[in-house]
Amino acid sequence: MKSKKVAIVGASGYSGEVLVQLLLNHPYADLVAVTSRQSAGQTLAEVFPRFASHPKSKTIRFSGPDVAVLATQADLIFLALPHGVAAEYAVPLLEAGCTVIDLSADFRLGDAAVYRDFYAHEHPAPALLAKAVYGLPEVYRDRIRTSKLIASPGCYPTSILLPVIPLIKAGLIRPEGIIADSMSGVTGAGRKAEVDYLFCECNESVRPYGVPKHRHLSEIEEQLSLAANSPVTIQFTPHLIPVNRGILTTLYLDPVAPCKGSEGAAHLAGQIAACYQNAYENEPFVRLLSGKALPDTKNVVGTNVCEIAWRADPRTGRLVVMSAEDNLLKGASGQAVQSMNILCGFPETAGLV
Amino acid sequence: MKSKKVAIVGASGYSGEVLVQLLLNHPYADLVAVTSRQSAGQTLAEVFPRFASHPKSKTIRFSGPDVAVLATQADLIFLALPHGVAAEYAVPLLEAGCTVIDLSADFRLGDAAVYRDFYAHEHPAPALLAKAVYGLPEVYRDRIRTSKLIASPGCYPTSILLPVIPLIKAGLIRPEGIIADSMSGVTGAGRKAEVDYLFCECNESVRPYGVPKHRHLSEIEEQLSLAANSPVTIQFTPHLIPVNRGILTTLYLDPVAPCKGSEGAAHLAGQIAACYQNAYENEPFVRLLSGKALPDTKNVVGTNVCEIAWRADPRTGRLVVMSAEDNLLKGASGQAVQSMNILCGFPETAGLV
Amino acid sequence: MKSKKVAIVGASGYSGEVLVQLLLNHPYADLVAVTSRQSAGQTLAEVFPRFASHPKSKTIRFSGPDVAVLATQADLIFLALPHGVAAEYAVPLLEAGCTVIDLSADFRLGDAAVYRDFYAHEHPAPALLAKAVYGLPEVYRDRIRTSKLIASPGCYPTSILLPVIPLIKAGLIRPEGIIADSMSGVTGAGRKAEVDYLFCECNESVRPYGVPKHRHLSEIEEQLSLAANSPVTIQFTPHLIPVNRGILTTLYLDPVAPCKGSEGAAHLAGQIAACYQNAYENEPFVRLLSGKALPDTKNVVGTNVCEIAWRADPRTGRLVVMSAEDNLLKGASGQAVQSMNILCGFPETAGLV
Amino acid sequence: MKSKKVAIVGASGYSGEVLVQLLLNHPYADLVAVTSRQSAGQTLAEVFPRFASHPKSKTIRFSGPDVAVLATQADLIFLALPHGVAAEYAVPLLEAGCTVIDLSADFRLGDAAVYRDFYAHEHPAPALLAKAVYGLPEVYRDRIRTSKLIASPGCYPTSILLPVIPLIKAGLIRPEGIIADSMSGVTGAGRKAEVDYLFCECNESVRPYGVPKHRHLSEIEEQLSLAANSPVTIQFTPHLIPVNRGILTTLYLDPVAPCKGSEGAAHLAGQIAACYQNAYENEPFVRLLSGKALPDTKNVVGTNVCEIAWRADPRTGRLVVMSAEDNLLKGASGQAVQSMNILCGFPETAGLV
Fold this sequence. Notes:
The structure is a homotetramer.
Chain A: E1 4-9, H1 14-24, E2 29-35, H2 44-47, H3 56-59, E3 62-63, H4 67-73, E4 76-79, H5 85-95, E5 99-102, H6 112-119, E6 133-134, H7 137-145, E7 149-151, H8 155-169, E8 179-184, H9 199-202, E9 207-208, H10 216-228, E10 235-240, E11 247-253, H11 261-280, E12 286-288, E13 306-312, E14 319-325, H12 329-344
Parallel strand pairs in A: 1-2, 1-4, 2-3, 4-5, 5-7, 6-7, 8-10, 12-13
Antiparallel strand pairs in A: 8-11, 9-10, 11-14, 13-14
Helix pairs in contact in A: 1-12, 7-12, 8-10
């Protein structure tokens, strides 16, 4: 298979680091350049000692981000930059003919006004919004295949959309009243020198944040609205917990058909199982749990897998769905590589576990 | 103030250990005996090195639990035993004239049939259920004052009942559709030698468990039903997170009056604030957070305080309430000592922070 | 007992926070002022939510550090400032008649040249060095009683000096060749917004640092030299481990009399035990472990106690001594309060556990 | 390359789990069987959900350990069993013609009397001791190539022997007086349901253990004695720290030629660097750190690499060497796979990072 030259802009954060790891060890991608203002001049081995055994780690040196140079070096560019900044790079890189996979929020929404509402600044390149494909392969695989601009989904959205979309599409749950309660590891906050994310401020601590209007709501609701064919508003509460990696989401959903009592619950559970089987049985990175198993982040961290389990509650008539993923893999860099694999015609699981 | 002789039955677990700590340093309680089958014969200093600097730690020795002896030694007995076992001790201790504060689930419910449904065995002493007082001082302070048998509440129930009861009583939220999503530190599982609670099975892991019918639902629903004057069924999902101590609960509640839009939300938030002020402004162990502050377990661990914050969501019309407590203090031993203080006529905050 | 008005300069760091906690709850000290540039204007309750239940937390407001004002408010001032800065405050406060307990390194050394060698800048107030007393009560209790300027020891030094000084003074170990290998929790690095101390950089990580010439060597060696009556140079390696609080130090010492073989080792162990008994049996904050017990930071965190255990190795003839302390209590703020108690004529254990 | 059929006996512990992971993903090894009494009957996917995405995880089922069956299934068997038990399986498997790589301590020593002294029972198969090769590839690569019985080294020994052996062989350090101070993650204690290894007993705790005569001393000293050509006795203190994986060892060594003063220290540091370069520059799994870099377990966890750094101390004349490894990879299963690669003629790095 013909390999592809790839580069990463903004490779010194946590998702950048994981992208480096995945691409250094990818069978078909050829990592040729990484950029970072703060690490410019240093080799990969110096910035990330854990990759120092890889031969390329001594030869690839961080550069400052120069679009013109990058466009001559690589065919496909990953942007691991803060929102707002990513768009500034995407525009010239696309013009120069590169394919862009953006891990920021800049191209995840269809509507620049919603972006402004949630991100508190004007969208830097609204004209591109219509061209971007939301990089959730389980939903948009075909469109990813032919796109030049992938907006790779956020970590929380992935953990919510994968379990909810099939149920909405199948008409099994009401699109109103959805509640998503999530817990995330601290890498989700990025490698930022802020007191709030110091070891001693996070260790032995659990706390909600961004209540009730976290930015990720915008893309979650847009995607759920598309699935429901009507506007969907959800309740979402993220919590910070003292683990490095992993997101656990617990969803509270209302079945369309009432399910009270143990018979009704068993019937609903069967319908949900069939719906998920239908949606995901051939998906390499969605794992449906059966029996007594419930998701546990330790079973997905280090992998690109999203685990899903569900319980129909005979007492309340409600459906509880739980998911677990690695926020830096299926929630960020792993999913971006999955999109790259699709887009480049590589086996979808290449370089991923 | 006249001191009281107290003893602890089953003092080698986590809540027993915290009881020991509180009672060794209590200004009016005089800890005279501790029992534990597995630690019998050892001194407090040997079993709990961290208390070894306390003079009593060298003189108080664990004994096997002998009711006749205990009844001659102490006036008030704390039971820190597994459910089912606690009742076996409570019966003869009460008959011998002792006051009993039970930290197990054995006397928390009014109905032996509900107990059997949730705890999977016959209640060992159903006749006592009617005599027990549910030891939540913020709700039952007066009844605690004169009781001989206190059923100290569970850790999750405390974190749910304190924020929900005033809102139900004030008619501000509907008693239907309540959702409680909780995260607990691992001391909640007790000091049991099980693989599931090994360091490496809990560290870097988050997981739900006991879904959808955790045992604590029984006492939560009984108390909420009493507050609502009608049967209440709730949705409750506990999660295990890698901290030693602390519970964070996020509650999703439906306001009785719709609150959509920013004006409606602000109005509701004001009503909630007034309701909580009214209920808790003089409570020493409930802290209402204002401004941007949200609960964080690290701000309550080591204290008997339950923190509460709330947000009316203008987008969904729902009310989100969050609470934090130390599962071993306000969620167990601290609350039990608070009940003792009330019952014995000590200052309610004696020996507690 | 007559209470004392006290203030804390630089109270927003970790040791400042613990000082606040100790002084708010102290039976004889009356905390009247706290300063912090970054928190100026906020109340204690706002900056440290965990103290919000204390009545004073709402009335005491952080101010910027104004020496003239402080001197009128308080008799005794704790300085919890970076080295170099502390001395600038100490000079005018002493001139204004205040007693100063300094938690920085500024007055721990007798020799300004050694200070310059280890701290890389000129000492800001060399004339005061001779007046300061090294605030290790177990060694300098009498001098502390009458001092106006206490240099409270560093966290690592305390964990090393308490176990080593009695053995040197008794002539049981050689002062040459001492090795101290220490592990510290992350609060030791202070509440500084640096990437190195982010949760994800410290969690699931252990690393040495400051090898081979950590600043604390200067005061350790000065104190050991005083004990030995001859210059002592030691080997010291600190390591950062993922806990909030606690220092564990393992010391490798050469007995003066050879101890090879099990008889020799038993004899030496007996001598060490006698020496420590003699030095510490009446010390409230040193705990000598016996039997199979070894130090564990979890048994001292939250207390002002330093645990010590020792093993004479019949195979190597060497003595291994291990100590554990809470770096923020016996290693910093607890010890400073212990000095205050001595100096003010309060019971030495007042406000400490 | 011709693949090899391999099996794992005792695959349900932590090192067994990592072996499963490595062998499932190995390009040339073909995992055909896993055994475990407690997991017998379950599939790999059921026991280890994190491997559930691997196709083989659904087809490979744990069996009870039946030597006759295993010998027909696999050519090479890994034993991940407790010491004492491993030898019982090794004997018949070798007789049946299998190659055995044993991860226990059973064949690491040359002398059955030393084994009895350290492991407190008679060696179960003393005749095999002479046939076993100590599976440290950096030292015994040639002998591993032709061996039928590999005794894979312990975790602590690997972290000590790799840095020390070259220095002894080169005559740069004295073989007397070596001190090794190590910290290990809790997987080192195995997946045993014991209270000491519960989350809440290890979290926020650091503690030494096995002082002064840990079992691993026996193999460390035997290997160092072989390197020195004379009996070597060392001082070794292991500590348990709250991380899942990783060992950090700090070594205190005496240079043969005195190195006091900055010139002497620089000269020694250069000699050490040259010695290590000579020993390890072509070793794929030893990483020599330069400049200011010091080992950090987070840079090696998940890899088969051992990091080494050193400092000559001009103040004490001593050499401090620090190493870091993943106790389950280079300290156990990764190293065992490295031996397999050598022994089977696979590329030495196959299946390892």
